[in-house]
Amino acid sequence: MKLFVYHTPELTPTDSVPDCAIAIDVLRATTTIATALHAGAEAVQAFSDMEKLMQVSEEWPAEKRLRAGERGGAKVAGCDLGNSPLDCTPELMQGRRLFISTTNGTRALQCVQAAPTVLAGAFINRQAVVQYVLTQKPETVWLVGSGWEGSYSLEDTACAGAIAHSLLSGSNIPLDELAGNDEVIAAIALFSQWQDKLLDLFHYASHGKRLLRLNCHEDLKYCSKPDILDVLPIQREPGVLVKNS
């Protein structure tokens, strides 16, 4: 198994696809997707384009859909929800499809959707992601951070490091064989330094500060909790994620 960490979708190779791609947007898209599926959503369909989301979701009965739109951390007008995982309650999600478009996370999912296996990873479902990879043993795994509008994102790299750290422990593969690029080693080092202070790290992160200005402190607390959900969002068809059973 070879792991590769890419800090943003723009940094992924354009001439190849991995056996398994893990899209990561800790604050907050992949955390929200995992939470929605855990709460009983039938599926989550991700879009990078808001107009396309509206067009496709219009084909679904109103009582069977929810639209979640976020730009710059704030809810998009005309949507039922923004991008807060705390809004994904069982009462709201049960049996519905969540159509979601966010500033960064849905772009990461779209960038890797051609891979045979696509997963959505976050701190809250880290162990479920790790267990799947250890069981399936894909030859190449890309951990793709969403970043922020094309630039580096501290919390996504820390999460990539958390997943890589657990895969290193669980696979018995030496680090120099497991790491396909330097970013893997850097991500593991970042996570190792901050693993007991993830919420503090989020407060230092530029996107964490952005969300704090929008009064999203409870979101940050929730997103920083490792392994609280045993749920694995897996792509069933391009852009459509379901709960792996």
Please give a quick description of this structure.
With about 240 residues, the chain is of the alpha/beta class.
What order do the helices and strands come in, and which of them pair?
Layout: E1 2-6, E2 20-24, H1 29-38, E3 43-46, H2 50-57, E4 65-71, E5 74-75, H3 90-93, E6 97-101, H4 105-111, E7 117-121, H5 126-136, E8 140-145, H6 154-171, H7 175-178, H8 182-194, H9 198-204, H10 206-213, H11 217-223, E9 233-237, E10 240-243
Parallel strand pairs: 1-8, 2-7, 2-8, 3-6, 4-6
Antiparallel strand pairs: 3-10, 4-5, 9-10
Helix pairs in contact: 5-6, 6-8, 9-10
Key descriptive features of the protein:
single chain, 245 residues, alpha/beta, six-stranded mixed sheet, four-stranded parallel sheet, 40% helix, globular
Radius of gyration: 17 Å
Strand order of the largest sheet: 5-4-6-3-10-9
First-to-last CA distance: 24 Å
Note the main sheet. Answer: 6 strands, mixed
Mean pLDDT: 95
Low-confidence stretches: none
Q: Which shape, going by the Cα principal axes?
A: globular
Helical residue percent? 25-40%
Number of helices: 11
Quantity of strands, as a count: 10
Q: Look at the helices and sheets and give the structural class.
A: alpha/beta
Amount of beta strand: 15-25%
What letter string, H or E per element, gives the SSE order?
EEHEHEEHEHEHEHHHHHHEE
Overall description:
The chain has 245 residues and is of the alpha/beta class. It has eleven helices and ten strands. Strands 5-4-6-3-10-9 form a six-stranded mixed sheet. A four-stranded parallel sheet has the order 1-8-2-7, sandwiched between helices. A hairpin with a 2-residue loop joins strand 4 (65-71) and strand 5 (74-75). The longest helix has 18 residues, at 154-171. The mean pLDDT is 95.
